[in-house]
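Listing S7. Sequence submitted for prediction.
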Amino acid sequence: QVQLVESGGGTVQAGDSLRLSCAASGRTFSVYSMAWFRQAPGKQRELVATITSYGSTYYADSVKGRFTISRDNAKNTVDLQMNSLKPEDTAVYYCAATSKYGRTVPSMSDYWGQGTQVTVSS
């Protein structure tokens, strides 16, 4: 099992920056890909960014150029640096991880954190 705990959420103004962090514990040696998802009120959960153990990354078009995902395999953490935040970035942000080799995007049956709220005011 892998446990994930997010931190760093908060309320900021449009144009500000925020950094989210996710700490993994447990069988962390087995983790292949880690990701950030978000869910806004009344909307489906959507993928924001992923990073594999090899450092390959993927970004949703809506955040490309503004968000950066990074991973520290030694510390078992994955961060999401969010710049130029917009009101539409307001959501609960979830950290997710999968131990299935080759699976870039964690599924709902993989490991998930409890989420952290990000609110961007205009």
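Caption to Listing S7: primary sequence and predicted structure tokens for the chain studied. The first strand starts at residue 2 and ends at 7. The mean pLDDT is 95.
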